[in-house]
Amino acid sequence: MTALLAVSDHLPPGRVAIEELAEEFGLTSIQLRIFRRYHGLGTVGRDPDGSLLDLLRGAVAGLDALRGREHRVRYVLHARSFPTVVPYPHDPVRELCRELGLDRATVFAVGHHACASGLLAVDVAGRLLAADADPDGLALVLAGEKTFTAEAGMVPDTSFFGEGAAACLVAPGGDRDRVLSYAVDVRGEFDSDEPDVALAFQRIYAEALAAAVLAAVERAGLGMDAIGVILPHNVNRVAWHQVCRLLGYPRERVVLDNVATTGHVFCADNLVNYRTAQRRGLLRPGEPYVMAAAGAGRGATFSAMVLQH
Fold first, then answer.
1. Same domain assignment for residues 142 and 202
2. Which of 48, 162, 195, 298: CA 20 to 30 A from 204?
3. Which segments constitute the Beta-ketoacyl-[acyl-carrier-protein] synthase III C-terminal domain (predicted)?
4. pTM given for the model
């Protein structure tokens, strides 16, 4: 059974208030008030002097479980929200692998589910390791991007992207943080830039994400009352309050600490929130928890994964 051997994150110390981004994105004072007061957004991470390699390197630096196990890493996956994350011909993931001595690993990107691709990467890593049937095999999942284009800076009317990264060492089995189930709902009808399609996406967003969470919990043979915490993607507070209302789940048990301070850290949110929950003592041995995310781009994806700490 797929398990997370270790998780680490790296959030640059630099922060930018959303008001400082108003001119860049053409936002009015009313829009800014909605972002801050209604959506619960305040600042986002920025590292103007750092590269994507610096972000990913910082995340892996905290992955102590990787030390001495580099030779066992068979796959390195970079979970991406956007198809292109650096200008050509830069390849920061392969450069990082050379630094870490992971030259023998198969390296590739996963971005098919947009901002939900982090969960997809964990699932793919587990499937590959299971197919290899090598109990000592490992996979390294990386997540995190730079806001190097306007599109990678803001989700219109919804959230701001923040810079940061996370790393996760995946094993084919383990005693904790075992993956119990994974549910995905891919909605191709939202593959359009038309305004009416965007509005339709917003209308079904909370219901579809709640349904994905319920599907994953049911596949794990559990009920929502068994779930200790939900580790969300940091889109905004109000979206998760709506999902909690539909699930009948206490919103105080959704780890939303980072929404106001880091923004939406692309595919790294679930792992960043794992580290926050870990520091707060919210992950209890043997207790199930949920990671959930949604992605928009070439359609829409709603996904959830149940793990047991």
1. no
2. 162
3. 218-307
4. 0.96
Q: Are 195 and 154 part of one and the same domain?
A: no
Nearest-angstrom CA–CA distance, 58 and 131 = 30
Helices (H) and strands (E) in the chain, counts: 9, 13
123-165 tens-digit pLDDT: 999 999 999 999 999 999 999 999 988 889 999 889 999 999 9
What is the helix (H) or strand (E) element at residue 143, kind and residue range? Answer: strand 138-143
Instruction: Name the stretches of the chain with pLDDT < 50.
Output: none
- Name the token pair of 105: 């690993």
Residue 36 carries which DSSP code?
Answer: I
Which structure tokens are listed for 141? 């999942």
Helix (H) or strand (E) holding 169: strand 165-171
CATH number for position 207: 3.40.47.10
